[in-house]
Design goal:
The complex is a heterodimer of chains A (about 190) and B (about 80).
Chain A (H helix, E strand, L loop, with lengths): L9 H12 L3 H23 L2 H18 L10 H20 L2 H10 L12 H15 L3 H11 L5 H8 L3 H19 L9
Helix pairs in contact in A: 1-2, 2-3, 2-4, 3-4, 6-9, 7-9, 8-9
Chain B lengths: L12 H6 L4 H13 L1 H18 L9 H13 L5
Helix pairs in contact in B: 2-3
Classes of the chains: A mainly alpha (about 190), B mainly alpha (about 80).
């Protein structure tokens, strides 16, 4: 292969994980290079603080180092596994600091994120643009429900409380939004067939 | 008393993947999940979706963070690993 591959194929991620399970630091470094931008961005968005986001990313990869042997491919891609870990660590941090409400108020006031810079690597920016497009294509109440659940870690009843809408309405919004996003974003999954 | 009836598990998968189920609902959902390959497949797909959602506007972490990670795993290494 002549060109340097910017994003390793999913089976390369899995190969890295096997090497990590055997204690190979170089493999951890390589997986970090591949997935840390995604995790760091998510953690920044969730915690609202770059310093907190760094801790979340560190803890997430440290957990990968410890638990690599426990990854089950049948449950999804390596990227999805790491994102699940990262969200969970970020939510732990938010809960531990009891800052959810303060952050939520800040996030509610914050403007929509800027569209991604044009100079990002192609594959990544295609995926990124697709995510923007798919989110933008949702009706605003559905988009808000996804933002509150995904980035702020609110449960459906907390979203209902926050928005003053009936719980049943929120549940339908979440389901409907996730179904639309799934259709729109399936071509951009890190791994199409787990 | 937010809930008077239990939603069917298949309608809860998306919320579960988002972490948006109530704590009281999670246990019952996970029990159903353990028994159902269909729910497991659905969940796997929603987790892929969640990973893709995270990749909006990716940004590089500070360069020093990688070294901190490697320092940490070295410090945590057991001699026989």
């Amino acid at each position: 292969m002549a060109s340097s591959t910017v994003t390793p194929a999913p089976d390369l991620d899995r190969a890295l994980l096997l090497r990590i399970a055997q204690g190979e630091e170089a493999a951890l470094a390589e997986l970090y290079d591949h997935l840390s931008p995604t995790l760091y961005t998510l953690a920044c968005r969730m915690t609202g603080e770059p310093a907190d986001a760094e801790e979340v990313v560190l803890d997430s990869f440290a957990q990968v180092w410890r638990d690599a042997a426990r990854y089950e491919h049948a449950r999804g891609s390596v990227a999805a596994w790491l994102v699940t870990i990262c969200r969970s660590r970020a939510l732990d941090l938010l809960r531990a600091r009891g800052r959810r409400d303060r952050l939520s108020a800040a996030a509610a006031a914050a403007p929509e994120p800027e569209a991604p810079a044009a100079d990002r690597r192609l594959e990544r920016s295609e995926r990124c643009n697709a995510v923007y497009g798919a989110l933008a294509g949702l009706p605003a109440p559905q988009r808000q429900a996804i933002r509150l659940a995904y980035f702020e870690g609110l449960s459906q009843s907390e979203i209902a409380e926050r928005t003053g809408e009936p719980l049943g309405t929120i549940k339908s919004r979440v389901r409907s939004a996730m179904d639309k996003l799934r259709v729109a974003l399936r071509p951009y999954y890190f791994e199409t067939e787990p | 008393m937010t809930q008077s009836r239990q939603d069917p598990p298949i309608e809860q998968v998306a919320a579960y993947a988002l972490g948006a189920l109530e704590p009281a609902e999670v246990h019952a959902f996970e029990a159903a999940l353990a028994r159902s390959p269909e729910l497991q497949r659905e969940l796997a797909e929603y987790r892929e979706l969640c990973a893709v959602l995270a990749s909006a506007e990716p940004d590089q972490p500070p360069a020093a963070l990688k070294q901190r990670l490697l320092d940490r795993v070295r410090a945590s290494r057991t001699p026989d690993r």
